[in-house]
Amino acid sequence: MTIKQELQTIISKFFNVDASRITDWRNLKGGNHIYFFRANGEKYVIRKFRQPHPDTAAAEKAAYSAIAPLKVTDELLYLDNAGIKITRFIEGAHLGFSGQDQEDSISVLRNVHESSPAIPYSYDIFASIKYWASLCRDPNSQNLKILMSYQQEIDRLKIKLDSIKIKKVLCHGDPCVSGNILRLKDSSLRIIDWEYAGMADPFQDLALASVRQGFEKIDPFKSLERYLQRKPAAEEIFRLKAYVTLGALELAAWQINNLNTKEFQEWLSCEPYGFDLSLCNRSI
What we know:
11 helices, 2 domains, three-stranded antiparallel sheet
């Protein structure tokens, strides 16, 4: 059975329609299997993970429920234990790319962080690095050896971050403006795809947005100042830098099977913000 056939079977059962009534099937670009379709004349989107993460579907379902009163997400209609999700298509929406989109998304994130109740799932970036590394298909991979060579420094960063009293909040986990934040016709924003949601340091969201979108497009330090609405303290700057570094490591681990050794090394030496394990040896 192909991916399309699998998803159309789920759609047929959910909407109680014959597969022939599922029309306008269109592949939407992204890191997962994402398709636009019509059923009963209405427009929808269905998603299937390429690389599912443990607890992903449960965490995403909990996040959608927790933030429903804020009305800042797309409309979730179906989500099974494998993470296959159906949402209503938002007519006229587009991904954000402008500076204004960046600024407005920070305000939305701050609202989510400050207003959302806790969910019983965390976003442990240290565990995430280990998980994605564990999916390396070649145990003798040079990329895996490079990543594992930094484990001592990663552990030191964890000790430093754990020593700081941080109130964990519901984080999106991948709030990339050009990938997961939509600008609607009425100018409001919607944050989609909450599969990495969990309780974490709110600065982690700011850092990961920069890492996954590209530092040439979004400056994490300017984002932090906008988020705080003031100049950040030294400890706050340290937290942001730490999560930027960890985010670079996490993304490298996620791509461990897709990058050659040169590309892998280039990513981990990313400047000016990317990979800075000298943080481990600095005082806060």
